[in-house]
Amino acid sequence: MTDAMGGKQLSELQIDALREAGNIGAGNAAIALSQMVNKKVGLSTPKASLIRLTNVPELVGGPESPVAGVYLNVSGDCSGSILLLLEEESAARLASLMVPSDLDVPEMTVVKRSALQETGSILSAAYLNALGQFTGLLFKPSVPGFAMDMAGAILDYVLVDLGASEDHVLVVETDFTVSGVKILGHLVLFPDMGTLSIILERLGVPFD
Fold first, then answer.
1. What is the SS3 assignment for 40?
2. What is the pTM of this model?
3. Please, is 85 exposed, middle or buried when counting C-beta atoms within 10 Å of its C-beta (0-12, 13-18, 19+)?
4. Per-residue pLDDT for the chain (208 aa), expressed as one digit of tens each?
5. Which domain CATH number covers 121?
6. I need a labelling partner for 70 at 20 to 30 A (CA). Which of 82, 103, 147, 162 fits?
7. Residue 132: inside a domain
8. Shortest CA distance to 83 belongs to which of 113, 107, 56?
């Protein structure tokens, strides 16, 4: 199966395996987020796909779309990086939910940025832990970095840091609902050379 944005082929079994890991990871993240905001957190079934690097900004409306990005390097048995992309509106909603209104904090201050950074760390760690459970591989996320910028600028920064050894990335997309407020997140895994093949092989659905 080829995704609609020009990705190379993933079979239905491969997509299902990656989605199942996403389900476990998103479930763990929902529990952690619920504890952070002291509110019930619901989630949709994650969508897993493989797309071209150049199409990543299209996930959030194009390269000039303002977004919040949380970026982590991944080491351990497999290496790479993870980027959580939140559209500006979703980021603002999530930040407002996580920072008590009685603090009267202006939009996107240090406190809110820190809250979003922590959210990105939780989501990334939850998915990596789920992948680790499924594959028996160790994934170690770094301390996250945070930026508010245009999607294209954030991707450019990531590509410079990575050296772009692969031309495709794995995207896990899921909706979170917190107290009736919907937040759409795109978790993008930038695998180093061979990392995705190792993961799929461990999941029992290797590339042909």
1. coil
2. 0.83
3. buried
4. 344 334 456 788 888 888 788 788 888 888 888 887 788 888 787 787 888 888 889 989 899 999 999 999 999 998 888 999 998 888 888 888 777 665 555 555 788 888 889 888 888 888 888 889 889 999 999 999 999 999 999 988 887 776 655 677 888 888 888 878 888 888 888 887 788 888 889 988 887 6
5. 3.40.1550.10
6. 103
7. yes
8. 56
